[in-house]
Amino acid sequence: MVKRVLRFITKEITGLHEAAYLLAISSFGSQILALVRDRMLAHSLGASTSLDVYYAAFRIPDFIFVTVASIASASILVPLMIEARDKGSVVLKKIEDSIFSGFLFLVLFIVLITFLFIPKISSIIFPGLFAAGQGVDLVLASRLLLISPILLGLSGFFASVTQAQNRFFAYALSPIFYNIGIIIGIIFFLPHFGTMGLVFGVILGAFLHMLVQATPAIKEGTFPRLRIRSIDFESIKRVAKLSIPRTVTLSSQQITTLCLVSFASFLGAGSISVFNFALNLQSVPLTIIGTSYSSAIFPLLARLRAKGDWNLFVEKMASATRHIAFWSLPVTVLFIVLRAQIVRTILGSGKFDWSDTRLTAAALALFVVSAVGQSLILLFVRSFYAEGKTAKPLMMNVVSSIVSIGIGFILIKTFNAYPLFAEFVKDLLKVDGVANASVLMLPLGFSIGIFLNVYLHWRSFSRDFPQFNKRVFQGCLQSFGSSIIGGYVAYQGLRFFDDFFNLSTVFGVFMQGFLAGLLGIVAIAFLLKVMGNTEFEDVVETLKRKVWKVDSAQIDKTPV
After folding, report:
1. 535 lies in which domain range?
2. Per-chain mean pLDDT for the chain
3. Residue 192 CB-density burial (10 A; 0-12 exposed, 13-18 middle, 19+ buried)
4. Domain for residue 555, yes or no?
5. Do 160 and 252 fall into the same domain?
6. CB 412 within 8 Å of CB 263
7. What is the Cα 364 distance to its own chain's centre?
8. What are the residue ranges in the chain where pLDDT is below 70?
């Protein structure tokens, strides 16, 4: 039994769309668990100060993970390992051991320094929570969570090794086990240890995340060895040179979220919770679609770049872009139309009341409007990394982050200073009479920055490859048009099913949203079929081959 599980986890995957669908399915499972996790948190704590502390405690450890622990990430190491593998197993092993050792020493050093100074850092970033008397709990939770970037950083290193070998199962399963750990914390640790119990669950989840990623290396006897002598410093220098622009790029995104959460700490109890609940919900399509495709295509882009096959490079980028638009645009529109039903069904329990639902639903709509852009940014960034161009995404992300933070701050000031503007926003997003509605300016600022970011990335890529726009225009336009019409059908469905169910119950709200959404999906699928959409045909052919076992020569079998 154990051997079967190990063979399953270490199995090699070929085919771009097969790898993407595998990652999408596992991401869907992970996101389902994440939604269960958030529902349990909402039920137990609601949008409260205690939950604000829990979410705020993540920010500094997450920042360390992105800036330091993610140095050993797949986007940097996969091309290097693919290149080293061609030079022989001895060279590859030495490089892996050296990078592993250098990374571990660095992250432990940074975590130790942060542990010492975290009280001062937290008081600067979250003065609102300290003023509310939550400073001691925040510092303790943040210090405990510093274990997380160490474990997740190691997991990222092992993920690089497995992806370079096209072994996507371990990479796909690890987020599922991460959320299982957190859920265990909510069920078993929260009742006994309060907020710290949630922290223990996160640490358990991070350990499981790392263990799954390390399984292929353990099975094959290639687990990296800690080196003190005979370290390949040239490889470490090369990784550092490539990682610094990438790290600053990702850091800019973390700084954006960190600043917006800091702003939320001044906007009343529960504002941080509402912001994070909405952010987590909008990350569902991003993780399932954007992350899956960008992760699956990256090894292929790296190989095509190494071969100098730029025509196929652009073709695969265009295909991935069209597929991301094909999946993301309908989901975005349906999320906006069904936002209240989604939030009420997933989070509407226990201490999470109707005011929390309305505010979170409005924030979700403002976040998810940029979900397509977020997915495309992940794809474009990996294309630039595959080309070895790390400076471009760095500059574009920094500029966009500054815009998001600046606009978020300005919008909050405008909302509080001009009642007419505030009433317009409340009326538009249906949050009249809800306290702390100014928090909605934060996801709005976030999305404006994303729009700018995706525009800059798209423009830069299309200038390098002018043929790109022609290859994606028709498919994206078809997806956009069918999504808008499908969204209208879903909206009318909400009104039609309004009298069929008791909307004071979770089941009634769910059925109303589910049936309305189903009508929207049918309308979108029908329109795409009528238009002969290529991506729709690709999905049908893949289902025939994988589900109904029908051979098809039209499926993209390009090795990843």
Report:
1. 468-550
2. 80
3. exposed
4. no
5. yes
6. yes
7. 15
8. 1-24, 27, 69-95, 160-170, 217-223, 227, 229-236, 238-251, 290, 292, 295, 542-560
